[in-house]
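Please produce the structure of this protein holding magnesium ion.
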Amino acid sequence: MPAQLVAVFNQKGGCAKTMTTMQLAGTLGMRGFKVLVVDMDRQGTSMIWSAQAEADDPFPAEVVSLAPLREKMIGELAKRAPLYDLVFIDCPPAIDSPIPWAALNVADLALIPVVPVMDNVWASREAKELALKARQENPALRAYYLASMVRRGRLFDLCLQELRNDADIPMLESYLSLRNAFAESQLYGAVVGSIAKKSPAALEADALADEVLALLAIKPKKPAVRAAQRGKSK
Ligand SMILES: Nc1ncnc2c1ncn2[C@@H]1O[C@H](COP(=O)(O)OP(=O)(O)OP(=O)(O)O)[C@@H](O)[C@H]1O
Ligand SMILES: [Mg+2]
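Below is the modeled complex.
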């Protein structure tokens, strides 16, 4: 599978797996990379998100659902991955599902979005166990926490510190803050950078994309020029 595979997983519901997947995939797609999102969640949020885009301004990455195949998606992935530079796997929120395990067994990189609140930090331990177990089968796998929906305040700082103190799973330097622009981009079937290029949200998504490219040792491309700046949101 020549494409680099990134699994975005965490059994905790609502911690921004789909947000991370779609902002990364779309941001890199806008830069000229050929990107596939594999929606492995029966909720189909990635699929619905991309379907909101206008036909003349499609979501800048291809999105396909392989959720019905469950862990057997690996075979289909092996067929499709060579056609892309990067493949993101948006996993469902269930640790006992065979899907995250299957994804981690083929991934180059695993991202574990964690909201810096206590229940998410506690739940991240199960995600960590799964990543460490998968590394025994797939020694090339690298796993990182990604701070998501970050807010300012003592509790959030404490939780971030606890995650940073984890000796087994490092945390990415980049993060996504809680911002209306991220949620709003779903409405337009877009990513934050295509709505307002230099907005604080777009700068965060760009920094995350840069860090992921560096981890995968992929040379950055110049940002692609979009047909039109929509200017719908800040
Ligand atoms: N950085 C952010 N700023 C604002 N809203 C966000 C951010 N990240 C995620 N959200 C919102 O939080 C909710 C949960 O995010 P998302 O759907 O990405 O989580 P998930 O982990 O994929 O959930 P599930 O476990 O159901 O698959 C969504 O309504 C999303 O729009
Ligand atoms: Mg999701």
